[in-house]
Write a structure and sequence with these properties.
Immunoglobulin-like; three-stranded antiparallel beta sheet; 406 residues; 2 domains
Length: 406
């Protein structure tokens, strides 16, 4: 028996052709009975069709992108009800048959490439082609719930804030990275779990050497490097620290389960004297947020001094690591960018307002960074990416292109 394999382009083209056929057939049917797809409520009354069904067909006909129509297609029984209503209203049988034939062609396409329409939607959604503003959000929510149950750990929010301001003569930048989890809890007794990783790297993923690092609160870290103990929950358990060359990892040991064991945990570091201008090995400035466990939300802020120069505005991307996190995730990420184009939104005000109900002391933490660095908060602006159910084992990145030196 021979097996025919198709590539992604064939799936896309075949599905697009079938969907356009369905839309064309429905447009002709509506024209034949004098129905206006822009007024589904009128169509529902005129032809005695359920309002939700009329709305779905209207969305299919009026979709700007054929793939966006797929999610609104009625099921077989719903479509039969609509066709019977149009038939009673005098629709030509040929127009009815054209719609039925177009739907059969779509189902045959779905069966050939995916098995059924549900799995075809999953494939197209994974490619980022369904034109939905949710950007795989339903799938991400299911993954969050499933991973939480499987691994026995979850967080209300993964929080990251990156700060940058010129230093010295302006050819260098001082950076601050703050990261943490809000509402971190175990759902069962689990093995130790990696929470954070701190490292610096060039564009090619090689470690940055000669980094001048400093603590944000050296007198209040409880003996754990980078720990912002003042902003962690009093009942936070001890955190294990492991050094692997230029990489520092922080691990949560096994402990109490449920809300009574939930806690907030924050770390941070200062890095001074980073290049403000592009070089041969380093053309981009970026901050990243490693998502190591199921999180309900991602809050990722970039807070910049008004004198920081950028050749391009900050852009967001996120990379998955289905084969696990290696020691050089910056270089291995290139082939695994996920189709999750979340918007980068400007934070209101100067200084930027970072208040979030998900992170009760976030504003206070940001003020502590300004104070530690001796910065004037009024000279800063900010942007934010807010994402529901970010994928586990992924790296979220906010990146901008560095300008050429004057």
């Amino acid at each position: 028996m021979s097996t025919v394999q198709t590539n992604a382009a064939s799936i896309v083209e075949d599905t697009k052709r079938a969907l356009q056929g369905v839309r064309s057939a429905l447009i002709q049917l509506y024209e034949a009975v004098g129905a206006d797809p822009s007024t589904p409520q009128v169509v529902a009354r005129q032809f005695d069709i359920n309002r939700n069904l009329a709305w779905k067909i209207s969305r299919v006909i009026s979709a700007a992108d054929p793939f966006a129509a797929l999610a609104h297609l009625p099921g077989e029984s719903g479509l039969d009800i609509a066709l019977d209503a149009f038939r009673r209203a005098g629709a030509p049988e040929t127009a009815i048959q054209v719609v039925q034939g177009a739907m059969r062609a779509l189902d045959e396409t779905a069966e050939m490439h995916a098995g059924d329409r549900t799995h075809l939607e999953m494939i197209l959604d994974s490619m980022g082609l369904l034109g939905s503003p949710t950007r795989l959000e339903s799938s991400r929510e299911l993954a969050f719930r499933g991973n939480s149950a499987i691994w026995g750990v979850q967080a209300k929010a993964r929080v990251t804030a990156g700060f940058a301001a010129p230093s010295g003569d302006g050819s260098k930048l001082d950076l601050v990275l703050v990261g943490g989890f809000s509402g971190l809890r175990r759902l069962r007794q689990t093995s130790p779990w990696r929470l954070f990783r701190f490292s610096g790297y060039n564009d090619d993923g090689t470690p940055q050497v000669a980094r001048e690092e400093a603590e944000i609160e050296p007198d209040h870290n409880g003996g754990v490097p980078r720990l912002l103990r003042r902003f962690c929950s009093p009942r936070m358990p001890s955190i294990d620290v492991t050094q692997k060359g230029a990489i520092t990892e922080y691990t949560l040991p096994a402990g109490p389960v449920g809300n009574l064991g939930a806690f907030d945990c924050f770390f941070g570091e200062i890095v001074r004297g980073v290049n403000a201008y592009a070089s041969q090995d380093d053309r981009f400035g970026e901050f990243s947020s490693l998502i190591t466990l199921p999180a309900e939300n991602l809050i990722f802020d970039l807070i910049l001094h008004r004198d920081v120069k950028m050749a391009t505005p900050p852009a967001f991307s996120i990379y998955g690591f289905p084969q696990g996190l290696g020691d050089n995730i910056a270089s291995s990420r290139r082939d695994w960018e996920l189709p999750l184009a979340e918007p980068v939104q400007e934070l209101a005000g100067t200084p930027p307002t970072v208040v979030s109900p998900l992170v009760p002391r976030y504003q206070e933490l940001v003020r502590a960074v300004y104070a530690r660095m001796g910065w004037n908060p009024a000279e800063f602006f900010g942007v934010r990416v807010a994402m529901r159910h970010p994928p586990m084992q992924s790296l979220a990145v906010l990146r901008w292109e560095l300008p050429k030196a004057p």
